[in-house]
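thread from #wetlab-drylab

HS: before we spend reagent money on co-crystallization trials with zinc ion, can we at least see a predicted complex? here's what I'd submit
DV: go for it
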Amino acid sequence: MDRTHYFSNSYREAREKFLQAASSGELSLRSYAHPLPGRDGEELAMDAALFGPADSARLLLLASATHGLEGFCGSGLQLALIDDEDFHSQAAAAEVAVLYVHGVNPWGFSWLRRWTHENVDLNRNCIDFDNPEGVPDNPEYDALADVLVPENWPDPEADERLAAWIGENGFDALKDAVQHGQYRHPDGLFYGGSEPTWSNLTFRRVLRDFGGHCKRLALIDFHTGLGPEGHGEKILMLDDSAEKSARARRWWGEVTSLTEGDSVSSRIAGPLACLLPQECPQAKVTDIALEFGTVPPDVVLSALRADQWLYRTPAVDAETRENIKRLLLSAFYVDRADWKSAILDQGINTARQAVSGLSAA
Ligand SMILES: [Zn+2]
């Protein structure tokens, strides 16, 4: 069966399909309007659609587009799950409500950026900005900032300097330096911000509006851009207790951890998952990111660097702009039926395992 129709070619199309699916599936919907318009002039919003009773003690939250354009994958997966009657029957029988949060960073989804409109990586933004000691340093990024995002693009001299750094320290060290996040270069890569972003504050509202009753809360946050093509890695972003790690491994089997260093992702501060225990303190929380591989990491980094140069250089001809956006999109979304099929199989299975886990926990 061809399931590619769950995926979309734009945020506007994805949102229309999501709203339509939520209404025909009789899910209860609440939309949180974003202050800015989208790339096609459309309205942007974080949309939350609930399957099951609002006062359920068990809640599974499925999130897309925390990293903007990674929503092309996550939205398709959400659409497939909403349309999966077996999945909803399983959830109803297990007394698990399912909350689909579509477009956590709708601006980045629409405008084809990984960051929010504040140029912030939302998965680095959920730290305590009132405590200056809690804002991480990143001296490696500081040293590489101008080489990573040079004044001109392409810039062979910057590439040479970066290659020399990799020759000395290894590509994994570069990946760590960049992915770790940084809080000193507001127009740089993986910037964590200086205050909570719109998406951070709005996701908190969603949690307060829908998560006040649950005793057991699970999050699967759909991501792309790391790991082997088509492979879904389950990552504990917030490995804050041995009990939670053990529970996640009971539910899902093989789970990697940023803390233990066995993940495709580097250690980071302030992922979105930090907000769950803060806004739903009554709940026992189990959260993972499900990270799907696309293209090799050097290709992803190169696309992000080009797009960051574009962000800093607004007066660029349309062809250059389109080329960079195409490059960026292809780094985070493989527009091929076999990739999408692999994503759907793994994503649906992971959601089913979460429903089983929530009912047994
Ligand atoms: Zn991501």
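DV: The first strand starts at residue 28 and ends at 37.
HS: ok that's useful, forwarding to the group
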